[in-house]
Amino acid sequence: MLTGVPPFYAESTEKIHEKITSSETIVYPNSLPSSAKDLLAGLLERNPEQRLGAKRGAGEIKEHPFFDCIDWNRLRLREYHPDFKPPKITMPFTDSRKVRALAKAEVMKQFNQGPSYVSSLTTGQMTRPATVDYNKEYMEMRQGRFRVAGASLPPPRPSPPSPAVKIPIDDNPDWELVWDGETKVFYFYNCSNNARQLIVPQTFFPRQPLNQAHDGSSTGDVGNLPSQIQKEDALEAALKAGYTHMISQILHKYGGMDLNVQLYGFQRAPTLLEFAVEQEDANLLQLFVDESVPDTWGTALFLSVKKGHQEFVAILAKVADRVDLTRALGRAVGRKDTAVIGILLASGAKCDFEDSDRPPPPRGCCFPEISDNEDCMPPLVRAVKLGNMGLVQLLLAHGADVNVGYHGLHGDHRSLQVIDVTCGRVIEAAMELGHRDMVELFLEKGADIHLPQPTLQFHDCPMIPRSVYFRVRMGLREVEAAWQSTRDSDEWVVV
C-alpha cells in the first residue's frame, strides 16, 4: 500500500521465489520517509526471530515511529477520515487490452478462414439458388426511392459547389459592384458593354438576420445602406465569380460588415479564412487576415496544418491565440510534419495546455462522462505514442513539461497498438509502449516517477489491469535505479 507494488514483484513465478529467498537488500522508493522504510524493513525481515512484532506482538508494531501520529483509541472509534476516497462508481476489473485484442484477433482470424470440410460429392453439379434481398424495398423506402412515375417527380436539387474547386481570379476592372439604393439590390456592372448581373440571395441555406452589422442594420432599414445579409450575399457572389478586387469595397464602403460569417453557398459552409485556404490563395488569405477576419475555433489554421500548407500556417499562426496554436501543434505532431511544427514553435506555440483550456462540460441537467478532448492531448504525449524520438527531443527543447499528465489516451487499431494506461503521465506512456530511451531522457530532464496521478474535473479515470500497473511501475523503478547508478558513477572523476 505504501509503495504501490509488492516487495518481491517479478513477471514470472520463478523470479518471485528467487527474490524472496535471495539475501539481497530490498530497495525502496526514495519518496518514502525513513520511518516508512524502517517499518517495511522490520516487517520484511527474513529471519522470523528478528522480525518486527515477533517479540511483543502487535504492541511492538504500534510503538514504531511510523505510527507516532496515530491515536489508537480514535482509530478504534472510527473518528479518522481518510484524505482520499475512491469514487463511488462501478468499474469492471478487466484483463489487459492487449490480451483482449490478441484474443479477438485470433477469433477473427479463425472466423475469416471459415469452416474446413471435404465434400462427399465427387460427381455432378450443385445449383446455387438466386439471391433474394428481402430488405431491398424497405431500404429503398428509407432512402426515399419510391416506385412512382418519373414524370411526377421534380428534378433533383443541385448541391452547392465545393470550396476546394479552384475559382480563377478575374481582376478585369470593367466589372464593378453597384448598389442600387432605390431597388435596394446589388448587381455586377460591366463598364465596357453595359452588361448587368443581378446578385440574388443563395437558396441552399437561407441566411437569417441574427448578426448585427456595424452600422446597426441587419435588415437594411437604416437609410439606403445594404443589410448584413445582402453584403454577405454580395461577398459570396464576388468570391464565386473571382472578383477579388471588389472585396475591399464590400467590407468598407457600405458602413462596415460583420466578418464572422460563413459562406452557405458552398459545401460545409466554410468561413472566409477556410475558403481562402481551400482555394490555396495566399493573397486572398492575407487580405482577410489584414481585414481582421476572425479564425473561429482555429478551423482555418487546423485545415492548413492538415493540408501541410506552410505559407498559410505562417500567416494564420500570427493571429491565432495560445490555445489554438497548441492544438495545431498537436495535430502537426500527429502528422509528423516537422516543417509545420517548426513554424508553429517559431510563432510562439506552447507545448502544453493549461487546466482551463479544456472545453467546459455541456449544459443541462445531464452530466455525462467528460473525457479529455483529442485536441487537448499534450503534443509530447502524441510524440511518445508515435515513438518518434526526434519529435520528443524537439518538444523538450522548446519547454515541454516532462511530467505532463494526460487523459483518454488510446492506441491505434490500424497498427494494433494497445494502451492500457489511458490516464497517467507521459513517462508512464513511454514505459508501457517500451520506449526505454524516452524514459531515460525524461529522467535526465527531471521527470519524477513518484508524482500522484493527474486528475480531471468531471472525469473518472478507468481502472488499470493489475499486471500492467505492476509491469509499468517496476519498469520505471528499474530504469530509474539504473539511470541513477550510471549518473553516480559518472560523477566520479579520476585524478
What structural keywords apply?
495 residues; mainly alpha; Serine Threonine Protein Phosphatase 5, Tetratricopeptide repeat; 3 domains; three-stranded antiparallel sheet; two-stranded antiparallel sheet; 19 helices; 4% strand
Blueprint of the fold:
Layout: H1 13-21, H2 34-43, H3 58-62, H4 72-76, H5 97-113, H6 136-142, E1 175-180, E2 185-190, E3 196-198, H7 228-241, H8 247-252, H9 272-278, H10 282-290, H11 299-307, H12 310-317, H13 322-334, H14 338-346, H15 379-386, H16 389-397, E4 405-406, E5 424-425, H17 426-432, H18 436-444, H19 466-491
Antiparallel strand pairs: 1-2, 2-3, 4-5
Helix pairs in contact: 9-10, 9-11, 10-12, 11-12, 11-13, 12-14, 13-14, 13-15, 15-16, 17-18, 17-19, 18-19
ANK repeats: 375-407
Domain Protein kinase: 1-67
Pfam families: Ank
